[in-house]
């Protein structure tokens, strides 16, 4: 993927015609999609990560690291192909996620999210209001008027002695716990490798980040977007989730938007189903451009703390997810299809001091941000997000 993709929202490419995370697209179609750009100067690069992880040669490794860093500098997003996570593994997690969200409400509600420090548990439809507003009163008004129309399950490291995950009983969701925990570990290992590539691309020792991210202070979010009638989406301000990104504290809502994930840490690994809808904002024009799901890839974007850490050398870009094509029910009413995604929010260690990386100090302006710990920053953002 060397570009943003121009795709007609009514295209069947967006329609959930297949099972979760499965597509029937030939290689030619992939190449065509990957080379169509709305803005030739604003492209999401497609990066073959095996050239870094397999260490074919030091030159290939450095070249891949530079491609990753340049992608985060210019766009804030990259697509990783040959990333090392088998497709069968991803499909299995999607299946277990779908089974969980089909459980009765009383079971899911018994696992409810409780506080921002633990950031674990089930979040019912309407509880979260994702926005760039930092004003608590404004967020409360938005939540009452137009709640994000999605539900999620938040999962953290399972060995934490202070905060526990909220697991359903094995009899209610067979294999759910073991599958998600294995995937959590797999995503962490990929995070470590990508951060090593970033370190190399920033002229640091390859393992510079290792002792700052090894505690697995991450959050995995399973997301479900139920089908919704279009009259709900037409309500003023209604959205399944608002546009957001790093340090951009301004609200941008659209009646046709729904998902967006709060990216507060270093990286987000996003696994999309075939419905798609992810759009990324051009940093100069302000226009949102689509980042279409591409089979076999993971969408990776830089988060707030990585932007701060790098003194804004790496970009945390505003992004959103727009509603999929409407399935017509009558002359005046339609319904959007259901959708799933999995976001793995990679974070530094909770007590890690996020201060300007030495190689990113601006000679003219110095450090742009004061130092902050991971926990201070993330907990502060989460407190404003949930009621």
Automatic annotation (TrEMBL):
PROSITE patterns for the chain: FE2OG_OXY
Keyword Iron found: yes
Annotated organism of origin: Steccherinum ochraceum
Entries under Gene3D superfamilies matching the protein: B-lactam Antibiotic, Isopenicillin N Synthase, Chain (2.60.120.330)
One Pfam short name: DIOX_N
Protein name: Fe2OG dioxygenase domain-containing protein
A GO molecular function held by the record: oxidoreductase activity
InterPro entries, per database record: DIOX_N (IPR026992), IPNS-like_FE2OG_OXY (IPR044861), IPNS-like_sf (IPR027443), Iron_ascorbate_oxido_reductase (IPR050231), Oxoglu/Fe-dep_dioxygenase_dom (IPR005123)
Family: Belongs to the iron/ascorbate-dependent oxidoreductase family.
